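The following record pairs a protein chain with its ligand, glyceraldehyde-3-phosphate.
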Amino acid sequence: MPLMTTKPMFDLAYGGGFAVGAFNVNNMEITQGIVDACVAEKSPMILQISKGARKYANMRYLKHIIDAAVEDHPDLPIAIHLDHGDTLDLAKTCVKDGFTSVMIDGSHLPFEENIKLTAAVVKAGHGAGVVVEAELGMLGGIEEHVVGLSAEEYEKNVEKFLTDPVQAADFWKRTGVDSLAIAIGTSHGAYKFKNEPKLAIGRIEQIMKTCPGLPLVMHGSSSVPREFIDLINKYGGNMPNAMGVPEEQIHTAVSKYGVCKVNIDTDLRLALTAKIREVFATKPAEFDPRNYLGPGREAIVGMVRRKLHVLNCAGKAEAVIKQWKKLGNPLPVFYTKAAHA
Ligand code: G3H
Ligand code: 13P
Ligand code: ZN
């Protein structure tokens, strides 16, 4: 079974010039679009589920959809990851649900509290063979609402919110976390920049110096492709000034630095929405969901395939499986016979 934690993936990605795409799943079509793209590109994948996705789709349904993908594609490395977990209880529930990786996001908390919460999740996760991602520093989007900053204020003060390399080393040492989401100027959603899109690439290098070997994660990495925004606006949508992270900057971050995981959700939403809008506007008599969700799913396949090349992740499935075997086929306790006896 090639279901695995992210460890074998990051072992190769770190210093290997590529990153694994972590795509948010909320329903069957989105999951199939991502999986079909990874099949076509022979690429490992991280399927991530937020608290909102759990609530929307019902975890049992989502898990079975992912299990179907795992069953259908025994040669593809797949990790199931909790995105932006906010409590120890939620992280423990995900461990019990068969996730192979969980994120605990205490980035809005004071430093010591973030450490305390993260260390508790690491203890619970590692005890069950599950790896843990944490976050330090402050992205826009979700966190922006937490601290009540406007996008403009965030951008003006971005330097203040970037991950501090010295704190990162202390955080890593005291939590034993497996990977770290860093703030380098990205934010969630479709409106990432008001002016020129720019990442603090130099900050990645500084963090790599204080935390050598620690896999780094980039949240808020959608590029908000022009083609989808144009379709959305052409067919009745209203998304002026949408702007993402240019793909060249993502490419630099993954090919030259230790960024091993790149989170993408918004681009999936845009691809699906653009195609649905197009069908509704050009075929007003259409009412069979398969005839608008189907084109949406196809648009996701195309977008994700392109992204896997930006991440240099295409063609890496076989090497990751080899690394997983070299590590002794590790799987969380959930998947062992003993756990179900
Ligand atoms: O970073 C957040 C992801 O895009 C998940 O969003 O909480 O709306 O599912 P969500
Ligand atoms: P985007 O909104 O840029 O797709 O970021 C998604 C994300 O970081 C999920 O954790
Ligand atoms: Zn995120």
